[in-house]
Amino acid sequence: MQTLENLLSHKTIRNYKSDPIDDAVLDKILEAGFRASTTGNMQVYSIIVSKDEEKRKELCKLHFGQKMVEQAPVLLTFCADFNRFNKWCEQRDAQPGYDNFLSFFTAAIDALLASQNVAVAAEDYGLGICYLGTTTYQADKLIEFFDLPKGVVPVTTLVVGYPAENPGLTDRLPAKGIVHYEKYKDYSSRDIDEIYEEKESLPLTAKLLEENQLETLAQIFTQKRYTQKDNVHFSNVLLKVLQDQGFMNNK
Amino acid sequence: MQTLENLLSHKTIRNYKSDPIDDAVLDKILEAGFRASTTGNMQVYSIIVSKDEEKRKELCKLHFGQKMVEQAPVLLTFCADFNRFNKWCEQRDAQPGYDNFLSFFTAAIDALLASQNVAVAAEDYGLGICYLGTTTYQADKLIEFFDLPKGVVPVTTLVVGYPAENPGLTDRLPAKGIVHYEKYKDYSSRDIDEIYEEKESLPLTAKLLEENQLETLAQIFTQKRYTQKDNVHFSNVLLKVLQDQGFMNNK
Question: What ipTM score was computed for the predicted complex, to two decimals?
Answer without folding.
Answer: 0.98
